[in-house]
Amino acid sequence: MARMARLLRALPELLILIEGMVKALKSVCFALGLLAVILYVFGIAFTQLCEDTSLEDHFGTVLRSMHTLLVYGALMDEVSMLIIEIEAESIFILLVFYMFILVAALTVMN
Question: 56-65: buried (b, 16+ CB within 10 Å) or exposed (e) per residue?
C-alpha cells in the first residue's frame, strides 16, 4: 500500500485520472442500468413478437432475447446476419429491431 501511495505522489497525472474514473463511475452505472431496463423491455417485446416464427432460435425466451439484443443490437456483432433473418420473417419486427438499435446506441453513447 505504501508503494501505491509513493507512486501516486510521484505521478500526479495518474491520481487525476483515477479521480476522474471514480467520479464517472456513478454516471456509467446509471447508463448500464438504463441499458438493462431497455434490454428487458425490448426482450419481452421480441419474445412476444417472435412467438411461433422461425426467429424463436434467437428470441424464444426473455433471457435469450435479451442476450440476442445485447450481442447483435447493442454491441453490433454480425448484426447483418440477424437482420437478414428478421427481414425474411417480418418487416414490422425489423423496424422494431432498428428502433432498439437506435435507442441502445444513444444509451451507450451517453
Answer: eebbeebebb
Q: pTM score, two decimals?
A: 0.83
Q: Rounded distance, CA 24 to CA 27, Å?
A: 5
Could you say which DSSP state residue 109 is in? Answer: H
Q: How far is CA 30 from the centre of its chain?
A: 13
Is residue 62 within 8 A of residue 42, CB to CB? The reply is no
Q: What is the pLDDT of residue 13?
A: 82
Task: With residue 45 as reference, give the H or E element that holds it.
Answer: helix 12-49
Smallest CA-to-CA distance from 68 within 51, 98, 46, 52 is with 46
Q: Which amino acid is at 56?
A: E
Would you state the cell numbers that stand for residue 93, as one nine-digit string? 419486427
C-alpha cell at 51: 412467438
